[in-house]
C-alpha cells in the first residue's frame, strides 16, 4: 500500500513488501515439495484398454470437486496415478484429485494433495479445508503442514499458521524453506525479533538471495539500516536481476541513510529490470524532486500514475496525481 511521507514535499514511498522465494506480494511461491511429494499429481482413470494385470490390487476412492467414484489402483506413469475406474472416468482438472484407500486409512504413497493446486489458484479457504484433511489423516506430513501454514497466513490466521509451521519444523528441522515461512508469519504479526531469528535459521541452512532480502526487510523494521543495506547488497550479488531488491535498497538509501544519488541509481535499475514498476517510478520521481529536477520528477510521477491506472489501482493512481499537483 502506498504511504505518503511529508518532508517539504509529500514524498511517495512504499512499504517494503515481504519477499522471496517467499515474497508474498511480488512473487508468491509455494514451499518446495519434499522428494516424492506429488503436489501436482493427478489421478488418471483409465477404462479402455484395460491392462491385462493390475499392478496393485488396491481399491481406492477417487474424489474431484464435481465427481466421485471408486476404482482399482494400477500403478503410476510419471507423476500420474493410473486408476481403473468402476463408476466413472476422471480427467485432469485444475484442482487435482484425491485418491485414498478405503476406510480412510492414511496412505502417503497414493495420497494426491488437492490443497496445493487450490492454494496456487489463490483459493486459500478451500485449500485450508483440503490440507487440514490431509494433516488429520497424516498428522506429521510435513509438506501438508507447510502448505497449510502458508494458506493460513494468506487469510490472516496467523496463530494457526504459526502452530502448523512449528510442527512442520519439528518434523524437518533442517528445512530452510520452513524457517522462511515462519519468518513470513512472524513478520505479519510484527514480531520482528522472532522473525529475525527465524530467517537467521533459514540462512544458516541455505544462503539464498530471497532469504537475504527478507532479512534486510527485518533489519529495516528494526531500524538497523546498515545491516539492512548489507543484506540487500548480498541479495543483489546473488540475484542481480531482482528488481524488488534494488527497489528496497533504494528506499533504505533514500529514507534511512539520506543518500539520494544511490537511491536514484537503485530506482533506475529497478525500472530497467521491470519497466512496469509503478512504485519505482513514483519513488524516483520523489528523488528527482528533492534533488531539484522538477521536470524529471513530473515525468516519473506521470508514468507512475499511468501505470497505476493500467494496473487497476485507483487509490495509488489518485495519490500519484495528488503528488503531481503539489510539485
Strand content: 5-15%
What is the C-level CATH assignment of the largest domain?
Mainly Alpha
Query: So what's the oligomer here?
Result: single chain
CATH topology of the largest domain: Serine Threonine Protein Phosphatase 5, Tetratricopeptide repeat
In CATH terms, the superfamily of the largest domain is Tetratricopeptide repeat domain
CATH architecture classification name of the largest domain:
Alpha Horseshoe
Shape: globular
Helix/strand-derived category reads: alpha+beta
Please report the number of helical segments: 13
- Which spans of ≥5 residues are poorly predicted at pLDDT below 50? 1-60, 63-67, 83-113
Give the CA-CA distance, first to last residue. 22 Å
Characterization of this structure:
With 327 residues, the chain is α+β, with helices and mostly antiparallel strands. The chain has 3 domains: 1-20 and 208-327, Serine Threonine Protein Phosphatase 5, Tetratricopeptide repeat (Alpha Horseshoe), CATH 1.25.40; 27-35 and 114-190, Tetratricopeptide repeat domain (Serine Threonine Protein Phosphatase 5, Tetratricopeptide repeat, Alpha Horseshoe), CATH 1.25.40; 40-112, no CATH class. 52% of the residues lie in helices and 13% in strands. The chain has 13 helices and 7 strands. The strands form 2 sheets. The chain has a 5-stranded mixed sheet with strand order 3-6-5-4-7, with no helix packed on it. A two-stranded antiparallel ribbon has the order 1-2. A hairpin with a 2-residue loop joins strand 5 and strand 6. Helix 5 runs antiparallel to helix 6 (192-205) and helix 8 runs antiparallel to helix 9 (243-256). The two termini are 22 Å apart.
